[in-house]
Write a structure and sequence with these properties.
By secondary structure, this protein is mostly helical. Helices cover about 55% and strands about 0% of the residues. The chain has 1 helix and no strands.
Length: about 80
């Protein structure tokens, strides 16, 4: 019912095929990218600004956590009296 159909080939394929030798790959010249000093300065300034913002967020989070602990302690003391 489901029998494979083989292609009609008068001669069997050779047992060992010799791969043709490829010529040496052609090396393409790499395009030169010129980076201006202004672009480098912009990246450095952007990194400094982002680092400062991250530090500000971290300091704010720590101060809010400390304030929450202090308020919690004060409210707990008020309940006990």
């Amino acid at each position: 019912m489901f029998l494979p159909k083989y292609p009609d080939s008068p001669t069997p394929p050779p047992a060992h095929m010799h791969a043709p030798t490829d010529p040496a790959p052609v090396r393409r010249p790499v395009p030169q990218i010129s980076v201006s000093a202004g672009a480098v300065a912009a990246v450095v300034v952007g990194g400094v600004v982002l680092t400062a913002l991250l530090a500000a967020v971290a300091v704010t989070a720590i101060s809010v956590a400390v304030a929450a602990v202090v308020l919690r302690s004060m409210l707990r003391d008020q309940r006990h009296r």
